[in-house]
Amino acid sequence: xxxxxxxxDALFGSGLNRPLSGLPALVTEHINASGxxxxxxxxPSGLFAEKPxxxxxxxxxxxxTFQFPKLAFLLPDYAEFTGRWTVIDxxxxxxxxxxxxxxxxxxxxxxxxxxxxxxxxxxxxxxFGHALLLAGSEGKAGAAVLxxxxxxxxxxxxxxxxxxxxxxxxxxxxxxEAMCSxxxxxxxxxxxxxxxxxxxxxxxxxxxxxxxxxxxxxxxIQTAKEPLVIDADGLxxxxxxxxxxxxxxxxxxxxxxxxxxxxxxxxxxxDYHKIELQKALSKKFGIILVLxxxxxxxxxxxxxxxFNSTGNSGMATAGSGDTLTGILTGLMAQGYASLDAAIxxxxxxxxxxxxxLKDQSESSMIASDIIEHLGQAFKQIEK
Amino acid sequence: xxxxxxxxDALFGSGLNRPLSGLPALVTEHINASGxxxxxxxxPSGLFAEKPxxxxxxxxxxxxTFQFPKLAFLLPDYAEFTGRWTVIDxxxxxxxxxxxxxxxxxxxxxxxxxxxxxxxxxxxxxxFGHALLLAGSEGKAGAAVLxxxxxxxxxxxxxxxxxxxxxxxxxxxxxxEAMCSxxxxxxxxxxxxxxxxxxxxxxxxxxxxxxxxxxxxxxxIQTAKEPLVIDADGLxxxxxxxxxxxxxxxxxxxxxxxxxxxxxxxxxxxDYHKIELQKALSKKFGIILVLxxxxxxxxxxxxxxxFNSTGNSGMATAGSGDTLTGILTGLMAQGYASLDAAIxxxxxxxxxxxxxLKDQSESSMIASDIIEHLGQAFKQIEK
Amino acid sequence: xxxxxxxxDALFGSGLNRPLSGLPALVTEHINASGxxxxxxxxPSGLFAEKPxxxxxxxxxxxxTFQFPKLAFLLPDYAEFTGRWTVIDxxxxxxxxxxxxxxxxxxxxxxxxxxxxxxxxxxxxxxFGHALLLAGSEGKAGAAVLxxxxxxxxxxxxxxxxxxxxxxxxxxxxxxEAMCSxxxxxxxxxxxxxxxxxxxxxxxxxxxxxxxxxxxxxxxIQTAKEPLVIDADGLxxxxxxxxxxxxxxxxxxxxxxxxxxxxxxxxxxxDYHKIELQKALSKKFGIILVLxxxxxxxxxxxxxxxFNSTGNSGMATAGSGDTLTGILTGLMAQGYASLDAAIxxxxxxxxxxxxxLKDQSESSMIASDIIEHLGQAFKQIEK
Amino acid sequence: xxxxxxxxDALFGSGLNRPLSGLPALVTEHINASGxxxxxxxxPSGLFAEKPxxxxxxxxxxxxTFQFPKLAFLLPDYAEFTGRWTVIDxxxxxxxxxxxxxxxxxxxxxxxxxxxxxxxxxxxxxxFGHALLLAGSEGKAGAAVLxxxxxxxxxxxxxxxxxxxxxxxxxxxxxxEAMCSxxxxxxxxxxxxxxxxxxxxxxxxxxxxxxxxxxxxxxxIQTAKEPLVIDADGLxxxxxxxxxxxxxxxxxxxxxxxxxxxxxxxxxxxDYHKIELQKALSKKFGIILVLxxxxxxxxxxxxxxxFNSTGNSGMATAGSGDTLTGILTGLMAQGYASLDAAIxxxxxxxxxxxxxLKDQSESSMIASDIIEHLGQAFKQIEK
Lengths: 383, 383, 383, 383
Description:
The structure is a homotetramer of 383-residue chains. In chain A, the strands form two sheets. In chain A, strands 5-14-13-12-11-10-9-6-7-8 form a ten-stranded mixed beta sheet. A four-stranded parallel beta sheet of chain A has the order 1-2-3-4, with no helix packed on it. Chain A is an alpha/beta fold and 383 residues long. Chain A has helices at 22-33, 79-82, 94-99, 109-115, 141-152, 168-174, 211-223, 233-240, 258-265, 271-285, 320-333, 338-356, 367-372, 374-381, and strands at 6-9, 37-41, 62-66, 84-88, 104-107, 130-134, 158-163, 179-182, 200-203, 228-230, 253-254, 288-291, 297-299, 305-308. In chain A, α11 (320-333) packs across α12. Chain A binds chain B through residues 118-128, 152-159, 168-169, 172-173, 175-182, 374-379, 382, and chain B through 76, 79, 138-143, 145-146, 167, 169-170, 173-174, 257-259, 293-294, 313-314, 316-320, 359-368.
């Protein structure tokens, strides 16, 4: 904040319900044009906590907000107004917070500590499940490598990777802890293996969209009895084959980035509309949607939204999503319910990325760094 | 222990020899239903130290036991009663302990320090033996990688890996310190190489159960003059070819997990029965059985049992057993007697897993982590 | 400096404009023959700051110079006279420094901090661009591996590597975060892929000079609309096909080492002549030339030169240049202007090499060490 | 030393020149039979400093010797008498030491600091040479990987590896900094590439002894003008083709372990005889012999012997010799004279192994650990 002066904006808090006009609107425009540093209290004046802004809004450089981040702070549309924000604990009793009726949640460490299961002494490989990952195609084997490594670092017991036959040496060299099941095709997936041995199934990283692969994906959707984890090209296939939606096993987790979400749900007019599209899709098909971004937003079929508090922009890098698919599949294999797996997995993925900043910068971070820091991330949430 | 109150259970110690009845039984049921935290002294009341419990048993959250863990604490059947237990040293003279007649031992650091050989200054590669590992098949090359890496980190002089021909690039890239001998078959093992150059032989990790591989395994058993280390699919083949048992070289080490042991020895009615099956099998065929689990149990032909004190549930992960096979084969190559190799190797394997918890959590641990911490494990037992 | 005595040479400072003669020349020869340690103040007597020396010059072991290194200190020709030099801050006001008219700059930390963009919270993979690297040939796949890994550690969003088909397994195993596009040829590049999806393109590392590859290179030069990063065999092809120069996209970055520069620009008579050749070539074709060496010299079309202050002789090692190509391509993908990318990338590359000296010596350093320390380098220039 | 008492043996120092007899011989036998801890001063009584012992010798557990280790301490034959020994500095002037006529030297840190060249600021890749390594065969690719990695960590500028064609992917994946030249044969070497571009050539690691490979080796020996580094199967081929000896370029370095040396020089009657065989072979063919062992012994054509002071028994492991070949080839490429390269390289190799003990134990050490610690080893000898 290299500025001439600091302006404290405490005009209107988050209780405001109509656009600024008259003098407040003029003052706001004056503040924004002043070149001074602006600190807003609770919320930048003119911004609404939970609905689209329609009038002038103070462009804050910093916001100190009370008790909880406002929904608007978590949406890309309003980033230009909030700058960097900090939550101030004003001592509301936990009961009071829990009583506040909301279907928007901000996932913090205490939430995932509650979800996380510790491992029993007399457990064995079988206690932690056997996951199946369908991943990879010629030229995109790395996505399979990353998803496989991340799954193994997420606590599962056994991992089988179903891959195009030509990927065998790559996968076995790079992911020795995984077993491989080979597709009849060399360069892309075409067949859906027998699903019986598996306690969780993930599909998508690097599979491409060959018509044989789309057919394989379609067969999987129609055969699977248990929830799936679906990412990347799996989502792209789903976007083009709307008839498949009805066959999605209840509780399946879909992990689109905004571009993929647009193909699935259509274009939105603003970020509140995007949220509504997400809620509607979750509800209609009984699925968990993980909309990836700065504050990854998880929706469940009951209309609740869970925004994630961990992660950084260094994770906007090739393969980052593949590692998330691996983590989610690994957690599902251990018996976590879909929503718990999504909340826990997204939190751990972001936390691992934050921990990777000890050795890396946001610029230098690669997806492998996230995997390498999963261990430290788990350690932070263990009781 | 988030509980209303703490109950100290010192009703009956480990001297008890008959099931609780009457008032003690009623008290026990009351304690278990109370929702309070329960701390037992010496042993939870109603539990027998060395035979199956037949009446009501106090469910302790913590046990403080005297001088040694009781046998029951080491068996999965009774985990629900013991919670977390701690041994209290009550100052029995070592002579007194040694005089106590028992064929059950709990392997501690002092025991393996005594077994471990340090290396002479003027030793050379030849001093530490040349091991042969028969491992791997298409899709399970990783098991061979892990076993090979672990063997190399266990002190042997030279390692040759006999592998299906198509695994060559994977193994040479991932395990450059090993030499490879190629099978005539590309995808699975079919031939048993000349055994003369080798001071130790391990077989099993990832070999699968193709009929040619079973034939190769059978030839190996009948040709080998020295003890073998047998794991994984080697055990599964053995389970289906009972005629082979008689040919097992005396002192061979078999390393089943409970599922594999069931195929070898049949179903048990309780954990004491399981122990008896294990003892009987060891005795009948003159072999060492390593029954893997939370307190891995090693049996020798003389009827002794050695329970291991190291390890954690993070090691219940894909490939963990393959690394143990590598370690045992590496120790045998250096001239350790079979029982010593088993006790030392199992202890080191568990200790490496415990040391890996510095960087990993139990959830994130993978088999490669165990291998990477073998160095620190050896350092802890060096004099 | 194990010497009999120390001689302080403060005879003539950097203001001198004609060669030493008479007594000063005799004294200089005496000093050089004395076997004593020589410390020069500002500049060794007889050496000119910015033009070739023509008379006798004091051979200093150390130089303490004022405010800025003299141009001569940055040129290999005069290394024998300057020994190790240190800049002394004499308190010139920054304004005074900026006012001094010069087209020679010495890039320091403050300069690159100014160039570096930090990453926005709501950024995503697409915010950081999609780079294309054309690299590798049979026997030189490692150059592609190193360039790819370095590009990924430089902050880009996505990376596609266009490679000869036989390199697929190598690249996918070693660089899992990259996607691969396969050339029709197995052993060398022959085809130029569609350039539309890419925000930056680098070519050269390990491509060899097969005639098909030269044709592919030629097509790329003539098709590309945006600046390219060109290194190694790309430069060698350019040296033999002078007609291509005119097609080079404006702002392209060429990164020759002295041998490659000689092929591009012809032989020079001394290091000042070399600089003039470099300036002329940059100006004529509107390109950025990065002449690699101890103080890598970057020229822009406006006639400015930027000498780099980081790096060490341990970076004179196989593959070091390939990592620079990767870094520059990665920065271009994120939208840095060519000159900024060159100055920032060269500085980071050298700084990463300096940071690698914590674990390595100049002798033991390999190119992979540079890549592993890029994260720490970025961290040092983040605000 | 868990013993009843400690006996100090200072009966006879290293001046003794005839075997013990009479009372001293009886006392010696009594000491050895006593079960007490024995500490000898200067040398165990009855042991000769520089010739074979012929009478009874005190078996010391520790020896404190004056100024220098005695030659006998460095020979395996007498390890049973010396236990662990320590040199005590008794303050002889360096001049006095240098004046003492000897052709046996014990290489210490100061010696290699003197040999080591630091790197000039304005150096470039070409300053540090281009090495050629001929290495590997089917099933022994790892030896080539280890030699290549070690060469790159030894300071050379460029490395080309000439390998059987089927090893290409392994080498390029595992050693990306090296370029590969492919043999016409897939599984073993058969052709000797053009030697002109190379400033140093190493041959041997993992090449096997196929007749085509022997022919290739033979052509290399007869074509090479500059000294070679020859190891492993190169030595075995040499042992069977005595006519090749006369063609060995003067100054070539051969690096046998005792088994290979026996094949080259014949059987010895004792360790002093072994030394004489080594000296004779060095002199006859004008070569450097590096006889690997606990105190690796280097002989030059002038009859001098240089015993190495670094290293430990953890280095008696698969691939350790391959890394030494890489180091020596890397040093030769930089222009070190053969004897200097041998003394420096053997010292660095041992020191890297000693430094690896920080993370590893002697049991867990693998050859890759040595390579990873070369950087720290170089740092210790830099001035």
